[in-house]
Design a protein that fits this description.
single chain, 418 residues, mainly alpha, two-stranded parallel ribbon, 14 helices, 2 strands
């Protein structure tokens, strides 16, 4: 009686072709039944190939998002969007130069100081106009250098993070463990989400700072005040060099080699660093964006590990003045932009009144609640110290005790002579 083909039970389903292909000899081997554990091309090997392809595609997307080769910013001064700001910046610089020349002509009787001012304004105006046209090209070259350096640091040889993950998926000690594979794939997906957030914030920030470059450089025409240019350059460089924060996990890559679980821990640490990149590297809106990401994660999960990760990446903060203890304080986006605008106005010679800051309503409520719950003991300690200091300050000075009086010496009665 001929044996029935077990694949006949799968006719009409997508698995029928895989079953027939495995039983045809490509999946048979000497160590097990056909299609299971046999030579290359079996069902298990196919699943392993799919996992490897998925991991490779996720890693490639993460690299492209964290340090992309191209930016949204204009690559040359011929870009239509950049030309609008370039026209405005050039005309603004020329207008400032004309005003300086007129002022120097009206006060020419002062002699050498005015000639020196007019010469400085002439030189800085020419330098500013020349730099305006070169900013997009310089940013493009710097971005390509950052992208190449990041790729070399994380995906170039056997000692980099993503190459170690690829190798561990094939030859790691837990490469055949479905739970370990699920953990590493899940960690890659989460890292992809944070990388997408980093990509959006960095690209928008770089685009904005490149576009306002002509307006900032035009402030040099007044006489060479570089305070606004320095502030602009520091924020732009912070945005562009932010991916190098992930280099902090590079020394630990060698310890993770051979275990997918340890690779997952390193990816979680990378997620924390990416949130920190947004918190510290994105000007004005960085703390807001990182805090929104933390609130989103905390509202979607009750896992304490996930909440601890986002809290490490986006710590608690208040939004104005620094306090010696408790959560840090940062400026609101409007106040941060107002302070930088004041620096730019000062470079133009315009004085801006500095208004004292105060906590926002939400931060004030949070501060009051924290003081009510945690500040009782501290207030009691401060009050006790104040009372002790007040008592010590008001205590009367001790008066010297009077010297003891000398005790009279007793006299002996001598008998009188008859």
């Amino acid at each position: 009686m001929p044996d029935n083909d077990p694949c006949d039970l799968l006719k009409g389903t997508p698995g029928y072709e895989y079953c027939v292909r495995d039983n045809s000899g490509s999946g048979s081997g000497s160590d097990g039944p056909p299609g299971i554990g046999g030579g290359g091309g079996g069902i298990t090997d196919g699943a392993s190939d799919h996992v490897q392809e998925l991991a490779n595609s996720l890693i490639k997307k993460i690299i492209d998002l964290v340090a992309p080769k191209d930016t949204w910013a204009p690559e040359s001064s011929d870009n239509w969007l950049y030309q609008q700001f370039l026209w405005l910046g050039q005309h603004l610089a020329v207008a400032i130069f004309v005003c300086v020349v007129v002022v120097c002509a009206l006060t020419a009787w002062q002699g050498a100081p005015r000639l020196k001012q007019m010469g400085a304004s002439t030189g800085w105006t020419l330098a500013a106009v020349a730099c305006m046209a070169s900013v997009p090209g310089a940013v493009m070259l710097l971005n390509k250098a950052v992208s190449g350096a990041f790729t070399a640091a994380f995906n170039s040889n056997e000692s980099t993070l993503f190459t170690v993950i690829r190798d561990d998926l094939q030859h790691g000690a837990d490469a055949g463990n479905p739970l370990a594979i699920l953990l590493i794939i899940s960690a890659l997906v989460v890292a992809l989400a944070f990388a997408a957030l980093v990509f959006m914030t960095r690209q928008l920030g770089i685009l904005a700072f490149v576009c306002i470059a002509p307006l900032v450089l035009a402030s040099l025409a007044r006489g060479g005040d570089t305070s606004a240019v320095k502030a602009w350059a520091m924020r732009l460089l912070g945005l562009m060099l932010a991916p190098f924060a992930l280099l902090l996990i590079s020394p630990f890559v060698e310890f993770a080699h051979g275990s997918l679980v340890v690779d997952t821990v390193l990816l979680i640490a990378a997620d924390v660093l990416m949130l920190r990149m947004i918190f510290h590297g994105v000007p004005y809106f960085g703390p807001k964006v990182a805090g929104a990401a933390r609130a989103l994660v905390e509202s979607r999960t009750s896992n304490p590990l996930a909440r601890a990760v986002v809290r490490a990446g986006a710590p608690e903060f208040y939004e104005q003045e620094n306090t010696p203890r408790g959560p840090r304080t940062v400026d609101t986006p409007r106040r941060a932009m107002s302070q930088d605008r004041g620096v730019l106005y000062a470079a133009y010679g315009i004085k801006q009144d500095k208004r004292p800051g105060r906590l926002t309503d939400e931060s004030a409520v949070a501060n009051a609640q924290r003081d009510a719950t945690e500040g009782g003991a501290r207030r009691a300690q401060i009050s006790a110290a104040r009372r002790q200091a007040r008592t010590a300050g008001q205590s009367p000075t001790p008066t010297p005790s009077p010297a003891p009086r000398p005790t009279p010496r007793p006299t002996t009665n001598q008998p009188s002579n008859p």
